[in-house]
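Sample intake sheet
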Amino acid sequence: MIYPKEAGFRMPAEYEPHHGTLMIWPTRPGSWPFDGKEAKVAFTQVIETIAESEKVYLLVEDSHLEEAKKALSDRVIYLSLPTNDAWARDTGPTVLLNESKQALAVDWAFNAWGGEYDGLYAHYEEDDQLASLFSKELELPIYDAHPFVMEGGAIHSDGQGTIMVTESCLLSPGRNPHLTKEQIEECLINYLGAEKIIWLPFGIYHDETNEHVDNVAAFVGPGQVVLAW
């Protein structure tokens, strides 16, 4: 299969029109104490706000489905797909577009932000499979980028060929230690249809994702970046 870049696909910007948003109901005890009570309140507010303007696909375990339905309106689209945790931005697919607005879902390898080196949980097999399973539900063609490890929060696009990342994350020994910085950059260009990669040295100090770029900087327009400071 040829690279997405060769096929004319690019990673759109977050501020471009959306088809919908993928979210996961928070239930994993290790991440959401007290049965995720406060997290579910926050998730509900976010989901309902997004649902006012676009589709929301919510993944919910069968044992929590009625709980979620009681908290949310009937605008939500529920899917029963297995997950290990609720970080859809990182475990879901990166959806690319071409000039005809056809979509292509990139399925990265996911290892819980570091695998055996410094990953946050040991069992992440279901999270690693999520991108492909969700894409199949939406009948999206899939580009399998395995074994290249990446998370959605580690990359940010201006929609015009520039991708912003952090060295602390992408060069972490828990991601792709067999690749050089130059090789990682080449992979990003080919997989995301990019022209240029901007490398920030760090994200937020000691962030548990190895300092994802989405915690510190984001494109809000062509040539415009908002920073957390």
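Comment: Residues 158 and 193 are 12 Å apart (CA to CA). The chain has seven helices and eleven strands.
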